[in-house]
Amino acid sequence: MKLVGAALFVAFVVPHVNALSQQKGLDWESRFRSLTNKENIRENDKRLSARPHHLGSPYDKENAEWILARFKEWGFDAKIETFNVLSPTPKERFLEMVGPTTFTAKLKEPTIQGDPTSDQQSEQLPTFNAYSVDGNVTAPLVYVNYGIPGDYDELERQGISVKGTIVIARYGASWRGIKPKVAAEHGAIGCIIYSDPRDDGFFQGDVFPKGAYRNKDGVQRGSVLDMPIYPGDPLTPGVGATKNAKRLDLNDVKVFTKIPVLPISYGDAQPLLENLEGPVAPESWRGALPITYHIGPGPAKVHLKVTFNWDLKPVHDVIAKITGAVYPDEWVIRGNHQDAWVNGAEDPISGISAELEEARVLGELLKQGWKPKRTIIYCAWDGEEEGLLGSTEWVETHADELAQKAVLYINSDSNGRGFLGASGSHTLEKFINGVARAIQDPEKGMSVWKRSQLLQISKARSPEDRAEIRRRPDLRIGALGSGSDYTAFIDHLGIASLDLGYGGEDGGGIYHSVYDDFYWYTHFSDKDFGYGQALAQTGGTAILRFADADLLPFDFGGFTETIQRYLSELKKLQSSMREEICERDKEIEEGVFTAISDPQKSSVPPSREELPPYLNFAPLDNAVEKLSRSTERFEEDLNKLKQAGNNSLNGNALRKLNRQLMMSERTLTSPEGLPGRPWFRHMVYAPGMYTGYGVKTIPGVREAIEQKQWKEADDQIVRAALIFENEATLIDSASADIEKASESHSGN
Fold it and tell me: Measuring CA to CA, how many Å separate 199 from each of 3, 194, 287, 594?
């Protein structure tokens, strides 16, 4: 999978209490960054992406063993943990048009002359969507644009039904697994997903091998598991997929698609689309193929057949540890996956190659006498592409221990050339801004923080937004939904998490294809691995600061401000829905509505919709106000401690305070989880049920409003309010401990 994050964002980081220790930490940081070597990252990428290494393949296991040997060589206590997961692979794939003319799709990505690894066809996974159900269907075809809920609203306005049809949707606008999910909900019996050249092909630039973008034969593989319900092994939800784990029967699994799905190239898609008739697609639906985009249904009629081998396969997670010298039971965890759909030089090897360089340099520091205060754990995950399998099963297996010991999880995935992107827990916003100020951009001669600030200023939508970006001492970070290995840490266990990576100046169209290889990456992305080195410096600096901090650098100011913004958004969402319904009802009363169905047919006005009630946001208002007061108190106490320059927070007092800071993210979770998907326990961040990767903030309330479940919205407001009250109580307790320690120190 791929980094799905907002643009980064400060200088202010919650200070270490012990100034001498902080200075030593900065010395180690500087030494760490100076020792990173981009040539090592290049060689890592070349070696790991040399052959296809999907889950269960020989080279996947060989890579895991090679990574294990490197960790041991660098002084880590390392091992491989193996889980047995369901991982279907294709048995049959067939797509043909049977009317009004005939055409058989190639369903194959050819070798490219000059690209030395694209010819490894005997080892390459075929083009397919993992966790599609078996199916053999023939039906008229309907074009549904991106296949997201709003597109079906447009079809309904045009009087077009997909019931009993096969839909063809283009990649983009949402996670791929949403497309067959929504299609099935509307009665479709099959789904085809293609990559339109407008989105990542010739419309964007020259295609591979001349340029970076997807050629007519390129296909995006990918999972269509219904991960907004739960990720990981479909047979063992909530528990690790160990050898003796109790497994669901295939018929009882709820996260498979309901209809067969197959991805294709735009070369295979064009004959299907140009044989559609019916209404011309709206302008926003039109791709870049040299055809008129019609919606259908028909006369194009297609036959789709897919069957799979439903086998268990081993996941090999490499887990490497440096035990902390002072706080061995406080864990700072770093991860990136190493499995790929094919060679995966960009996704994910560009990320794991940088992570390995971080680990190598930490090993060098160990030889020079450095010892982290906290335990550091480096992870190379397997099985991420199919559905976050390796990381989820590891987290579920070690859930009790992680809940007690994990301080932080830092994730990366794909990496490229350009700007630093950072998303994560907003209690870490100031922290990661501080890290970003310490990293130099390899090309621009300025900090990566400054470069990100300039990007945000250039993209600001209004003068007011630009002024805020200039005025704020820090840059906002995005919230985490899903799509990479942080998901189980933050969404399931409530472990504060960050997702980091560079990109934005290396556009491409080889995602999840055979052409994501070392040749493509070194010609069209981070050619000299300078941004790989920047990622290693960013991730390693963050690990060092957290592992060696006396006082854990969590901050509640940015978090509280963010929660206030989320609450404001919820109120505006409900208000805008009421306004839209009122306006529509007014048009109906006046007989004014837009007839966008076939002009030869009589148009039926839309039915009136019940006006949403006013929701009672008072519990949330009160809870967020309490959170704000608690945050102000905590910041005042911490600032007084800093100004006094005393060392009252040490020993048991410091351990107790750090414990409370560790638990601050856990406090934002609920054991019952979100409605209809109890695996997701975080009440502030979660992937949307119909966005897949994209985050929904305060999701219980937000999605109830979006789905017009007003009673559910009221209930979720109360639940969310309780979560924020509990967070405020924890922060108050931390403040009281600081005050008590300060008074005790003054008395002495």
Answer: 17, 11, 8, 30
CB atoms within 10 A of CB 710: 16
H or E segment and range at residue 424: strand 418-424
Closest CA to 456 of 448, 444, 447, 465: 465
Q: What is residue 6's predicted lDDT score, i.e. its pLDDT? A: 39
Q: Quick one: pLDDT band at residue 744, thresholds 50, 70, 90? A: low
Q: By mean pLDDT, which of 524-533, 577-586, 597-606 is the weakest?
A: 597-606
- The DSSP result for 20-89, as a single string, is HHHHHHHHHHHHHHHH--HHHHHHHHHHHTSS---TTSHHHHHHHHHHHHHHHHTT-EEEEEEEEEE--E
Q: 612 pLDDT exceeds 90?
A: no
Decide yes or no: CATH 3.30.300.20 for domain 89-310. no
Report the chain's terminal Cα–Cα distance, integer Å.
56
38-42 average pLDDT score: 98
C-alpha to C-alpha distance for 373 and 357, rounded to whole angstroms: 21
Residue 603 tokens read as 């148009």
- Are the C-beta atoms of residues 165 and 297 closer than 8 Å to each other? yes
Percent of the chain surpassing pLDDT 70: 92
The neighbouring-strand residues paired with 406 are 331
**Could you report the per-residue pLDDT of 698-720, keeping only the tens digit for each?**
999 999 999 999 999 999 999 99
In a 13 Å sphere around the CA of 636, the CA atoms on its Cβ side amount to 9
* CATH class of the region 19-85+313-555: alpha beta
> In the numeric block, which tokens belong to residue 296?
């259908």
634: left (phi over 0), alpha (psi -120 to 50) or beta: alpha
CATH 3.40.630.10 residue ranges for the chain: 19-85+313-555
Within 13 A of 693's CA, how many CA atoms are on the CB side? 22
Range list of H helices, 158-277: 178-185, 197-200, 266-273
Q: Are 239 and 169 in contact (CB under 8 A)?
A: no
Query: CA 49 to CA 62: how far, in whole Å?
Result: 12
Total Cβ atoms within 10 A of residue 746: 10
CATH 3.50.30.30 in the chain, residues? 89-310
Phi, psi dihedral angles at 275 (to 5 degrees):
-100, 15
CA separation for the pair 297, 394 (Å, rounded)? 46
In this predicted structure, what is the pLDDT of residue 645?
Answer: 65
Judged against a pLDDT cut of 50, whether residue 10 lies above it is answered with no
pLDDT, average across residues 249-277: 98
CATH superfamily of the 577-747 domain:
Transferrin receptor-like, dimerisation domain (1.20.930.40)
Residue 5 has pLDDT above 80, yes or no: no
Kindly report the three-state secondary structure assignment for every residue of 673-715. Answer: CECCECCCCECCEEECCCCCCCEEECHHHHHHHHCCCHHHHHH
Q: Which pair of tokens denotes residue 422?
A: 């950072």
Identify whether the C-beta of residue 376 lies closer than 8 Å to the C-beta of residue 324: yes
User: Would you state the pLDDT for residue 9?
Assistant: 43
Tokens of 84: 């047995």
In angstroms, the CA 132 to CA 88 distance is 9
On the question of a cis peptide bond just before residue 110, with omega within 30 degrees of 0, the verdict is no
Q: Tell me what the pLDDT averaged over the chain comes to.
A: 93
CATH 1.20.930.40 range(s) for the chain read 577-747
How confident is the model over 28-33, as a mean pLDDT?
A: 96
pLDDT above 90 (res 492): yes
- In the chain, the amino acid numbered 460 is A
